[in-house]
Amino acid sequence: MKSKKQLKIGVIVEGVGWSYWAWRHPNMPANASESVDFYVKMAKRAEEGKFDMVFLADVSHIGPGNIPHFLSMFEGVTILSALSMATSHIGLAATIATSYADPFTVARQMASLDKISNGRAAWNAVTSNSGGLANYSRRHLSKEDLYPLNKEFIEIVEGLWDSYEDDAFVRDKESGIFLNPRKMHQLNYRGKYFSVDGPLNISRSPQGRPVIFQAGTSEAFMNIASKHAEGVFINGDDYNYAKQFSEELRRRAVLAGRAPEDLLIMPSQHIIVGRTETEANEKFLELQSLSPPGYRTPKPLFFGSAETVADRIEHWHQTGTMDVLLLRQEHPSGIDDFIDLVVPILQEKGIFRSEYESRTLRGNLGLPFLENRYTKDKA
Ligand SMILES: Cc1cc2nc3c(=O)[nH]c(=O)nc-3n(C[C@H](O)[C@H](O)[C@H](O)COP(=O)(O)O)c2cc1C
């Protein structure tokens, strides 16, 4: 499917970087993964670049073999709450695994972040790896439980976000009426894994409710994501895989009664770009020099001069394989390079904005405002 929307861009902020060795670069603060100043700087820079969102990946279980970023990092909602006060337009997406959290708490945290940021929050509802079962007192569950549990979890969170109709709160001092109780709804969800009465004790945000993203690859994943996800984070290493996977997801979304353009395909890319191919190559070699001999990584798929990289982005976007480009940073100047060199070309091509269209994440991503389920059919 050819994309009808403009390209959207998110940046996966990963402190010291998505690699084992980038932290050794002289310009990379070695504590970036747990530096609020670093995160604020990145979010503000991304907002200057008119990016749609800061996206935070997460991990549920670590050991000494993980990349340095995962060894000592912020919890997502906490750092995004801080970023919401330092920014005004950029979206804020947190990964919280459904396998280990509690749906009432997640609904509450994400709705709070959504209101604190005036409608800029998104939740990436992954299952995460099964290693986390050992950290969260869930040893009684198996890997096979994770997607059925994911489905229940998301249904509950969506339901709780509709606890109040948009005009439920009267807050009229004269009459003394604070709430119209007929516009408050209990969920009464009874599932195999969770039992939640509701209602949630927070009203809806300017974007109705947070945007839902998901990430995974399996059949079970696709069945859930095609119904619930508004964006799917995919591995962008292989164009043919990305194309086929996104077509299949959209096919299933249509079968589920959704408009195909309401499910955004979001491949992540580590991009190395220079004014010229030679300059990009110098940056690549600089990164290579940080790893011990024998640890050689291939050049990224999106590599070279700004024109080359912009052309490749345009191709992925035009063929419906990249609705949202999720940038991964590794070189300390990676995001600056992208904003300074590639964004102006994308703007010239007419595929990326020069100004934000909206103050909400939903508005900027071109996603519909979701009516509250209790008022939807009344309209
Ligand atoms: C592109 C992509 C991104 C992912 N990001 C995360 C993440 O940030 N945190 C996490 O715990 N798991 C992440 N996962 C792992 C998934 O949650 C899931 O555990 C894994 O993909 C296995 O499910 P599957 O068989 O459906 O692929 C990611 C998976 C994919 C494919």
UniProtKB/TrEMBL annotation:
Its EC number is 1.14.-.-. Residues 23-287 form the Luciferase-like domain. Belongs to the NtaA/SnaA/DszA monooxygenase family. Pfam families: Bac_luciferase (PF00296). FMN binds at D58, T95, Y147, S218. One of its GO terms (molecular function) is oxidoreductase activity, acting on paired donors, with incorporation or reduction of molecular oxygen. CDD domains: Nitrilotriacetate_monoxgenase. It is an enzyme of class 1 (oxidoreductase). Keywords: Flavoprotein, FMN, Monooxygenase, Oxidoreductase. This is NtaA/DmoA family FMN-dependent monooxygenase.
